Amino acid sequence: SQQGEEDPQALSIQEGENATMNCSYKTSINNLQWYRQNSGRGLVHLILIRSNEREKHSGRLRVTLDTSKKSSSLLITASRAADTASYFCATDTDKLIFGTGTRLQVFP
Amino acid sequence: NAGVTQTPKFQVLKTGQSMTLQCAQDMNHNSMYWYRQDPGMGLRLIYYSASEGTTDKGEVPNGYNVSRLNKREFSLRLESAAPSQTSVYFCASSESDRHSGNTIYFGEGSWLTVV
Q1: How high does pLDDT run on average in chain B?
Q2: Which residue of B has its CA nearest to A31?
Q3: Is residue A21 a contact partner of residue A10, using CB atoms and an 8 Å limit?
Q4: How far is B84 from A15, CA to CA, in rounded Å?
Q5: Which residues contact B95 (CB under 8 A, 6 or more apart)?
């Protein structure tokens, strides 16, 4: 199935550093979404980027989309320990298909 | 405003037993979903309901049935549980009756173990 593949699978950084997660997908999409999941909790929507957009910002989050390379990235700037979570991209055609996620650990 | 509420939070079943996961949303959303989450597999859509009175299969519907009881409630039933159905189940909803382009709001999950 068309599924976003996140890279890396796991990422460990210090507070204050930037965290970059990448998502690659296989076929054309309408939109791409990023979600966050704290351990033992449900997913929470972070941001949606449409196929005709190249970059989008929300607070400390910056998402880029390159439809020619079929890839997206999520950048979290000045990370905090509270950003520790798993992050999922979801490719959006007529259905939303989630990737396997990147586990981010931010050490104080 | 509770959002999406699902019960039970935890359940252990014996192989062959049946059970129903309950889900309700208080956001007046049209669409509701059931996903399962397994290690290394991400979230996979089991069934969804684009509007009251309709249900459709997702990626992994085998072994499950659903009921859209009314606009608020969407239940997932395991008729004869199998160990392969050990997973974390998430109910979710979205405002539009189209899956695409919608923000999905998730419940907190139900941890199901089948022994």
Answers
A1: 93
A2: B101
A3: no
A4: 39
A5: B27, B29, B30, B31, B102, B103
> Using one digit for the tens of pLDDT, what is the confidence trace for B56-105?
999 999 999 999 989 999 999 999 999 999 999 999 999 876 656 788 99
Which B-chain residues 14-33 have CB contacts (< 8 A) with chain A? Answer: none
DSSP string, B18-78: -EEEEEEESS--SEEEEEEEETTTEEEEEEEESSTT--EE-S--TTEEEEE-SSSBEEEEE
Say whether B103 and A1 touch across the interface (CB within 8 A). no
Nearest CA distance, A97 vs chain B (angstrom):
7
CB contact (8 A) between residue A41 and residue B103 = no
Burial A22-53 (b: 16+ CB within 10 A, else e): bbbbeeebebbbbbbbeeeebbebbbbbeeee
Place of tokens 């989050």: A61
Contact B43 A3 (CB under 8 A): no
Look up tokens 């059931």; give the residue.
B34
pLDDT in tens, A28-65: 888 999 999 999 999 999 999 999 999 999 999 999 99
Q: What is the pLDDT of residue A65?
A: 97
Instruction: List the single residue in B with minimal CA-CA distance to A98.
Output: B43
B99 touches chain A (CB under 8 A): yes
